Amino acid sequence: MRLIQVRPNTGKPRKRYRAVRRMAQSLLPWTFIVIGALATASVLLSYLFHVNESVYDPTTFAIGTGGMFCLLCGIMLMVLSRNSRLWLELKRARIRCEELADGTWELKEAEARATSLLEAQGDLIVRRDNLGRITYVNDAYCLLAGRPRELLLGSAHALPSLQQGRDSVLPDRTRLLDEQIMTADGPRWLAWREVVVWSEKSDHAEVQSVGRDVTDRIEAERALGQARDAAEAASGAKSRFLAMVSHEIRTPLNGILGMAGLLQDTPLTPEQATYVKATQTSGAALLSLIEDILDFSKIEAGKLELDTQPFSLTAMVEDIVELLGPRAQAKGLEIASDVDEGLPARVIGDPTRLRQVLLNLAGNAIKFTENGSVAVIVESGFLGGEIVFQVRDTGIGIAREQQARIFQEFEQAEGGLARKFGGTGLGLAISKRIVERMGGRIEVDSVPGEGTSFRAIVPLPAAEDGGSETANPEATDFSHLSVLIIAPPTIEASLIERQLTRWGVSAMHLAPHLAELFAQRHWDAVLVDHSIGAEAANHIAGIAQARRIVLITPAERHRLPALMEAGFAGYLVKPIRAASLRAQLGAEQPIESPPLAPEPGAPPAAETAQKPMVVLVAEDNEINALLTRTLLTRLGHLPVMADSGALAFERWHTAHAAGAPYDLVLMDMHMPGIDGLEAARRIRAAEGGGPRTPIVALTANAFTEDREACFAAGMDGFLVKPLDRDRLATALAEAADKTAMAA
Ligand code: ADP
Fold first, then answer.
1. Ligand 1, from 292, 428, 443: best to mutate by most atoms within 8 Å of Cβ?
2. Of the residues 121, 309, 324, 644, which has the maximum number of CB atoms within 10 A of its CB?
3. What is the pLDDT of residue 164?
């Protein structure tokens, strides 16, 4: 390659000098010519004037010769200057020629480089004109086609296609196509990328296709897909297996727990009662383990379906605290809840799953706390629509390094301690997955030896029907009240104070030893926690000038008559519901004590109050049939047994035809021959549009699909085994209500 000359930068002075020189060069010849012409003309004139005298004057001759010489010099100089200019222009033209030659050479080199790059591409490149004839192919294409370029150019050659895969067109009209072709080395997958380009030569549009060998990727994808299908099939098989195992375990467990329950109601020696209690505790633990494993496997299989329905936050949280109350109080722990009044009264979400999470967190809090209290506090989160469910305890705490681990399945913070407290290590793993499925998160804060606080933060939109209302709308008109709370410094007392303050009440919480000083002042109401001792409580009841309300645990109900006699006008059972507290504060007259809730273990109200029903029981398992029959008899109903679906339908049909239909059918889902679903379908078909006999499914399967199948078959309720007396009584009462309403 030749180098182009680069002139040094001459700058302005040099340019000016060149202009002066050029002017001098052009003036000089003319100067000579003018001087020479003048001299010659003067000689000629002097010769003309002296022509007659014919005088030779050497001076004139010399001037004439000089003038002629000057003229000649001027002409010569002019020729020389023109020559040098032409020479310069020639030189410039040569340089320009050289530059152009260099440019052409560089372009050729770039083209050669681009062509060699294209040729060396591993990707296939082929261009076709509008008739499908090849106008360009690269080496890779020639190699794969097994033909020389000369043969391919101008031909409509196409690689032999075996099958086509994904085919799509991008917004810029580029077409992407996967194609399997046959090559000398066997089938290969090519991913083509086709674009329309303009050809400069033919002035026609051409299709340029670039094909990349993606055989490895596609085969990996296929292998992955097959592995995923196999994994899904295995997971499905696992879920079915678990459902089957759960059913198989639940059925005998139903018998064990049910029979132990029946045994407990018979006269037993203290030793026998201990053994029965142990049987029941172990059975209940086994049942909760099965439920945890089932739940976890369902979540793992991606089968966790979330419900969306409006529900009341306060009712849900207070139910949970009330349910766990006896367990906490049995350990001597305080348990209380507080729902921020600013939250919507009703929100939309899955109350059953949320309840499961909170029951697990609060259940753990009670399990891992030996002294102190457990509180469930519900507040609004930082982000709009987020609700924070906080479960706080004063228990053993969790070391920082264990805090992330406990959310993994089968993980427990401390092996030794966990063994002491029992459990499977699945509860938090399940809760975390449920909350995350709801779009929320779970966090934990804990100080070993001081306590733990779990926060489930869940987005729950306000329900349309109650969105504008707040959790306790009527609670705003208590600003005129002043209330004194006399209680040990427990979480429950501080939550009551917080609740009252939010309602506008002037509330003051005092420890029992200061009570004497303040109790005699003017208060609208004095709340006295009975845990300060019967004597102290009675003393305050004697001196307080206000309405006196005593706070008791369910186990202290038997003290109520004495407390009323001592001067208390009302009572609240711990854990206290906001609505009960409001009702007590709102009551102007001394409160009539609400009817006492049944003591634990006492037969439910349904047992005595409900009208006896004739119940058809379809159950093939002998032990379960015996249990159901006994429970129904004890509840005051009349069971009629059928050990198959066919017999159940026959019995139902006979009674129906005789005009004395059963009040209710309890239908086991799984029976040999005609199963419970089919029997229910037959009953519904036989009823036509006439009055319906309520049918309640009885099954050991807890899956949603089973529930849906039962309702689809025309059943009205669903009872999961193991059957217990309370749930059966509730189901019977509901069925009776529905029948009464329909009648
Ligand atoms: P389980 O309670 O059945 O063992 P979880 O998954 O519910 O399983 O809990 C996992 C572990 O986390 C527990 O074994 C315990 O070590 C720890 N843990 C959970 N909640 C608390 C709590 N409130 N206080 C102390 N430790 C807790």
1. 428
2. 324
3. 87
Half-sphere exposure of 446 (CA within 13 A, CB side): 26
* Residue 558 or 367, more confident: 367
**DSSP letter, residue 400:** G
337 in Cβ contact with 355 (< 8 Å): no
Strand partners, 390: 377, 455
**Ligand 1 touching residue 363 (CB < 6 A):** no
User: Residue 4's pLDDT band (boundaries 50, 70, 90)?
Assistant: very low
Domain that holds residue 614: 606-742
| Contact 372 CB / ligand 1 (< 6 Å) | no
Shared domain for 164 and 111, answered yes or no, is: no
Residue 441 phi/psi, 5° resolution?
A: -150, 160
Residue 665, pLDDT above cutoff 90: yes
| CB of 423 closer than 6 angstroms to any ligand 1 atom | yes
Does residue 268 lie within any of the structural domains?
no
Same domain, yes or no: 186 and 323: no
Residue 188 phi, psi (nearest 5): -135, 150
Would 628 be classed as within a structural domain? yes
- Angstrom CA distances, 689 to 685, 686, 692, 693, stand at 9, 9, 8, 12
What share of the chain has pLDDT > 70, as a percent? 87
Total structural domains within the chain:
5
In the predicted model, what is the mean pLDDT of residues 614-628? 87
Do residue 97 and residue 183 come from a single domain?
no
Give the Cα separation of 502 and 583 in Å (integer): 16
The rounded distance, in Å, linking the Cα atoms of 594 and 35 is 144
Better pLDDT: 503 or 452: 452
Q: Is the pTM of this model over 0.70?
A: no
Which token pair is 363?
Answer: 């259940």
Is 658 part of any domain? yes
Assess whether the C-beta atom of 390 lies below 6 angstroms from ligand 1: no
* DSSP-derived 3-state class of residue 369: coil
Residue 723 has pLDDT above 90, yes or no: no
Residues 316 and 431 placed together within one structural domain of the fold: yes
Measured from the CA of 393, which atom of ligand 1 is nearest? 23
Out of 192, 213, 234, pick the residue that ends a domain.
213
Q: What's the pLDDT tens digit per position in 568-583? A: 888 888 888 888 888 8
**Average pLDDT value for residue range 677-685:** 92
pLDDT for 604 equals 42
Boundary (domain end) residue, out of 189, 213, 237: 213
Backbone angles phi, psi at 190, to 5 degrees: -115, 135
412 within ligand 1 shell (Cβ under 6 A): yes
Q: What is the pLDDT of residue 139?
A: 86
CB of residue 578 inside a 6 A radius of ligand 1: no
| 20 and 82, same domain (yes or no) | yes
Q: Is the CB of 296 under 6 A from ligand 1?
A: no
Q: Does 451 sit in the ligand 1 pocket, CB within 6 Å?
A: no
DSSP reduced 3-state for 650: helix
The 10s digit of each residue's pLDDT in 374-423 is 999 999 888 778 999 999 999 999 998 888 888 887 666 665 444 556 66
Q: Which atom of ligand 1 is nearest to the CA of 422?
A: 4
